[in-house]
Amino acid sequence: MATFLYKLGRTAFRRRHLVALIWVALLALAGIGAATAPPAGSTSFAIPGTEAQRAFDLLEQRFPGASADGATARVVFKAPDGEKVTDAGREAAVRKTLKELSAGPEVASVADPYTSGTVSKDGTVAYTSVRYKVPGIQLEDSSRTALQDAAQDARETGLTVEIGGDALSTVPETGATEVIGVVIAAVVLVVTFGSLIAAGLPLVTALIGVGIGVSTVTALAEALDLGSTTSILASMIGLAVGIDYALFIVSRYRAELAEGHSREEAAGRAVGTAGSAVVFAGLTVVIALVGLAVVSIPMLTKMGVAAAGTVVVAVLIALTMVPALLGYAGRRVKPAGVKSRLLGGGRAAGPSGRPNLGTRWARFVVRRPVVVLLLGVVGLGAAAIPSASLELGLPDDGSQPVSTTQRRAYDLLSEGFGPGFNGPLMVVVDAADSSRPATAFTAVNDTITSLPDVVSVSPAQHNKAGDTAMITVVPSSKPSSAETEHLVHAIRDASAGITAKTGATVLVTGSTAMNIDVSQKLGDALLPYLALVVGLAFLLLIVVFRSVLVPLKAALGFLLSVLAALGAVVAVFQWGWLSGPMGVEQTGPVMSMMPIFMVGVVFGLAMDYEVFLVTRMREAHVHGEEPRQAVVTGFRHGARVVTAAAVIMIAVFSGFVGSGESMIKMIGFGLAIAVFFDAFIVRMAIVPAVLALLGRRAWWLPAWLERALPDVDVEGEGLRTSQPRRTDPDADPDGERELVGA
Fold first, then answer.
1. How many helices (H) and strands (E) does the chain have?
2. Structural domain of residue 29, as residue ranges?
3. CB contact at 8 A, 420 and 455
4. Confidence (pLDDT) at 358
5. Domain presence at residue 148
6. β-strands 425-430, 392-393: how paired?
7. Which of 364, 438, 555, 564 has the maximum number of C-beta atoms within 10 A of its C-beta?
């Protein structure tokens, strides 16, 4: 592989005009596609194989036109102190609002609180349910505006009016903090390379890659039902890995220049060696993201595949666009140890100078490996303790900030009717195979009424054929509580007896039941997914490192870092620690998809640092160094760049903490803290400590496996004698042509 990538790097360097033209053309095509494509909506939230989804599908079939998956809005009215919404003047204002709401072209139905029984017992609070013909994220802006205008008109009469439900859902927008993350990345690159030109290359190539990837996702969003958050997540991951991959190749290029190679030769060798690590690191990320398909949740699968596509683009750009831009930069990219004139010029201390920080740290670790290993493991173990209290759920209006109308509507409903009114259960009775449908409907109603934690059970509403009915059940507990989950399971357990007596099938659905089913499905899929991803990556790393213990150590270190990161997420988003600085206005359960998504993404990113850092150690060991010295050599060449890459990735992910979308905020924080734990504790401390303790055993591989494995030559051994060195890369004739971009 190293030889092929070496040739690719040299070709891209020489044919830089063609390479640049191809990538710019792809960017333009993707941009045009994104600009002309319909806007992305909310991805269809279908959960195949769950009871809640089967019930929704049955409703679509038996209640055509009922818009079971349509947006809903709960407009909550509260009378002023000392008055009631049933007073003549207040009732007239409410009915006027109902009439105004009904006029919307996308409105399917508006319930009258005075005839549907949605007025509180004390008469101070009432609500109307507005159902729309399309999902919330697909509503026209005019429909949302009409909803808010109707509420405002009612407020002007003296009523307190708030709006809940998903009708106000909009496509999440990114904030200015993402730009801050990119600025921090730029500063880190300048400090790392000591050159504005060298620092700018990773940023430019990463932005081009993200532009192509995200524009492609946007262009295909409507056709493939990719959803509104898919492009944000793709940009988050694509930007982080794009900068890192380019960073490693540019860093290796400068190191090759310092060894006396010509610029074209240095570009080829950089792509042949660091590029090999980029390919395998990218493969681990892609495996982790595409592996999300095993969960069988279409939304999660599409998010993973879209992000994986952006990673593939980042890898291809690093292998081709980076050497092409290095050709354009010419002498303005200095060899390692030489700074640009803008930053002070001159050459850094040579080999006789003081060892760099990476070398000093590695020597400290290999002298005291047991102490460092224990401190690292104990520290991560302590950070992981909160993960034992992990509570999973999907966000509802109760998790919104108190400043939002959705949260205020949630609180008004809890005040007037009880917390269960914010998450009613929908029980669907399929009596098509029953000889006595009416008897079945009554039996279901009576059975549910007798269960604990039930406030009310509505009369069965059957379809025209009379073979299917909907029954609304209001729990006494809030939607995200354990009591409500127990009630859902109790209804499902009782359905077997009803089926045996009447032949009718009972299904429980609604947003609350759907959340419960999603959490269960994700929990059941976590271990199989972990086994698949870790297993495939383990095999891949055996090929890369030609070792059994090194990949095993990499996998165990990942488990430590991801558990510690989950502990930090629980502490901030569930317990409320540092919630103020993090901008978390409302704590609550961690989103159900967070653990499995973190496992996938963090594993891929963790393997990046493992590959980049340990391949340098492997390279030194293959070239004859003793195991402990190879660890030091690997840190001397790679620690500074890996540290810079980690800081950049943390900065990029942290930028998404400023998003107003709770899922994006939580994922951004989780990935940032996971990269911190994995890069600075696992890879920088635990990995060298373990390798120092293992010694030569770290690179042990059974002879039969050695013969069976392909030789991918990640270390670039085949390049050591491929070309002679030049004593001065800036003295060759090509240098002059490179300077002017010939």
1. 25, 11
2. 1-39+175-348
3. yes
4. 82
5. yes
6. unpaired
7. 564
| Other Cβ atoms closer than 10 A to 342 | 11
**Which CATH number belongs to the domain containing residue 440 in this structure?**
3.30.70
Distance (Å, whole) CA 6 – CA 9: 5
- In this structure, how many other beta carbons lie within 10 angstroms of the beta carbon of residue 280? 25
In a domain, 536, yes or no: yes
Instruction: Look at residue 719 in the predicted model and tell me its pLDDT.
Output: 66
Is 716 strand, coil or helix?
coil
Name the packing angle between helices 687-694 and 627-655 (round to 10°): 160
Residues 443 and 486 in one domain: yes
Contact 233, 307 (CB under 8 A): yes
CB 585 within 8 A of CB 406: no
Q: Are residues 293 and 342 in the same domain?
A: yes
Where is 362: in which H helix or E strand? helix 357-367
pLDDT of 324: 94
Residues 222 and 238 in one domain: yes
pLDDT of 137: 64
Give me the CATH number covering residue 240: 1.20.1640.10
Query: Could you tell me if 635 and 685 are in contact, meaning their C-beta atoms sit under 8 angstroms apart?
Result: no
Pair type for strands 125-132 and 425-430: unpaired
The residue type of 223 is A
> Per the structure, how many domains does the chain have?
4
d(CA 241, CA 210): 10
Q: Which residues, 6+ apart, have CB-to-CB distance to 92 below 8 Å?
A: none
**Is 514 within a domain?**
no
CB-based contacts of 145, cutoff 8 Å, min separation 6: none
Contact at 8 Å (CB) between 315 and 714?
no
- Check residue 353 and give its pLDDT: 56
580 and 534 in one domain? yes
* Domain identity same for 695 and 630: yes
Measured over all CA atoms, what is the biggest interatomic distance in the chain, rounded to whole angstroms? 96
Instruction: For residue 287, give both structure tokens.
Output: 């495996």
Query: In this structure, is residue 183 part of a structural domain?
Result: yes
Lookup: tokens for 104:
């919307």
Where is the domain boundary, 132, 165, 198? 165
Give the contacts of 575 (CB within 8 A, at least 6 positions apart).
386, 389, 587
β-bridge partners, 475: 454
The conformation of residue 728, written as its DSSP 8-state character, comes to -
Same domain, residue pair 625 and 688: yes
10-residue stretch averages of pLDDT, the chain, 742 residues long: 87 94 94 78 66 87 69 90 92 93 88 87 91 76 90 93 82 59 80 79 89 86 71 80 88 88 90 86 85 83 87 94 92 73 44 72 93 95 92 74 84 89 89 85 90 87 87 88 89 89 89 86 84 82 85 87 92 85 75 81 77 82 85 86 84 77 80 90 92 89 84 64 50 42 34
Clarify whether residues 212 and 329 are in a common domain. Answer: yes
Quickly tell me which residue has 């109790």 as its tokens.
Answer: 490
127 and 206 co-located in one domain: no
Q: Two tokens at 456?
A: 């009310």
